[in-house]
Write a structure and sequence with these properties.
Elements lengths: L4 H17 L2 H16 L32 H6 L1 H7 L25 H12 L4 H15 L1 H8 L15 H27 L4 H14 L9 H28 L3 H31 L1 H14 L16 H12 L4 H14 L10 H30 L4 E4 L5 E4 L1
Antiparallel strand pairs: 1-2
Helix pairs in contact: 6-8, 6-9, 6-10, 6-13, 7-8, 8-11, 10-11, 10-12, 10-14, 11-12, 12-15, 14-15
Length: about 400
């Protein structure tokens, strides 16, 4: 782009002034380097064949858009209901807690003393607890994937990125509230000095790159059943990490985990309320979707996690959480039975033949899971115990 006369003169003057301030030897050296560079033969460009990026875990055979188009009208008709029943469960930003409320204040003259106190408390907590806490934190940090997932649901997605539809407002505000969870846990773990932050950050990057596949098929019927189940699962998990932190003497960490658990409980109330409304308006489709999700099994959001080393990382993390009682197969059965009761599935009437079969299936499933868990517990107790290295804790071993 051409410069105006005045600007050009000013630029020349500044360049001249800059040159006059440099020692003559420096100016000579620069001139020599420029001359040498201009006389060097051109290096022929060698084409570089880069390998395209691929996720560490890939999912084949995905099913999309299985909900009939006319069912989307249900969600359009629920927009006023969603505004009054969902958006009122969100908290205003100004009255919401923020991660800094629970962490040493970097602007305070006591920051180093506060951090040292945090680190001393952290030293009293065993490695196996940190495996569970890190796994929970990584799950929270994959939040971009979860917002993307909600925006795949037909009839409730954010069509513009800033839509004023109540469904879209809910998704963005839910994401904003959830975003604090990973931020708080990650900053706490960073200050604790007990974990390998670079390995944790790699795991987060891998996980977001892999995404998630929870078999909801873009259907909000299945999607909101999944989120109802999952929010209760995270409420249980964070509540139990709070309980363990308190037992190990870290009351601040217990408060952190308990505060996050309270958020998850409130979000659970929102999603279960959506599904309750779907059972009221279209009980046949709702119970069939419920049975479909339970046949597929509710997988955890971070089931594709990878740290660059351990292909079985999620299974190993889950095994530690099961052994510590942070989240177990028993909890899975409890959640199923809770939702069956919450949505009054046993009392559903006037269903189609497929709907009746779906109702009977989910109502009997809790006891079936409990029997399977009893057998699995017996096998766990008799098998040889083994230890697994976790890169998150500097490759130290933990019993799984």
């Amino acid at each position: 782009m051409a410069l105006s006369g005045a600007s050009s003169t000013a630029c020349v003057s500044r360049r001249t002034l800059g040159s006059s301030l440099q020692p003559k030897s420096t100016q000579s050296n620069i001139s020599a380097m420029i001359t040498m560079a201009s006389t060097l033969p051109a290096t022929p460009s060698t084409p570089v064949h880069k390998k395209p990026f691929r996720p560490a875990h890939e999912v084949e055979g995905q099913i999309t858009h299985s909900m009939p188009a006319h069912k989307m009208e249900i969600f359009k008709s629920l927009e006023n209901w969603a505004e009054q029943s969902l958006l009122t469960l969100l908290k205003p930003v100004e009255s919401s807690w923020q991660p800094q409320d629970f962490l040493p204040d970097p602007a305070s003259s006591e920051f180093y003393e506060q951090t040292e106190e945090l680190r001393k408390r952290a030293m009293e907590i065993p490695d196996e607890y940190y495996v569970c806490l890190v796994g929970d934190m990584i799950t929270e940090e994959a939040l971009p994937t979860y917002q993307t997932m909600l925006n795949t649901f037909d009839g409730v997605r954010d069509e513009t990125g800033a839509s004023l539809s109540p469904w879209a407002i809910w998704t963005r505000a839910w994401t904003a509230e959830e975003n604090r969870h990973g931020d708080l846990l990650k900053q706490y773990l960073y200050l604790s000095g007990r974990v390998d932050m670079r390995q944790i950050e790699k795991t987060i990057q891998y996980l977001i790159g892999c995404g998630m596949y929870i078999k909801t098929e873009n259907s909000p019927f299945m999607g909101f059943i999944y989120t109802s189940f999952q929010e209760r699962a995270t409420f249980i998990s964070h509540s139990n990490t709070a309980r363990h932190a308190k037992r190990h003497g870290d009351l601040k960490l217990a408060q952190i985990c308990g505060t996050i658990a309270a958020d998850e409980k409130r979000h659970e109330a929102a999603y279960t309320k959506i599904v309750e409304k779907l059972f009221e308006l279209d009980p046949d489709s709702a119970v069939i979707a419920f049975a479909d999700m339970m046949r597929k099994k509710i997988v955890m959001p971070a089931h594709l996690m990878f740290d660059g080393r351990d292909r079985g990382l999620f299974d190993h993390f889950s095994a530690v959480a099961q052994r510590l009682g942070v989240y177990s197969a028993g909890d899975y059965a409890d959640i199923l039975e809770f939702l069956v009761g919450r949505w009054k599935v046993e009392s559903l009437a006037g269903l189609s033949e497929e709907g009746n079969k779906a109702r009977d299936f989910v109502c009997c499933l809790g006891q079936r899971y409990r029997k399977l868990e009893e057998r699995a517990r017996g096998r766990r107790e008799t098998r040889e115990k083994r230890r697994v290295r976790f890169s998150w804790i500097f490759d130290r071993e933990v019993l799984v």
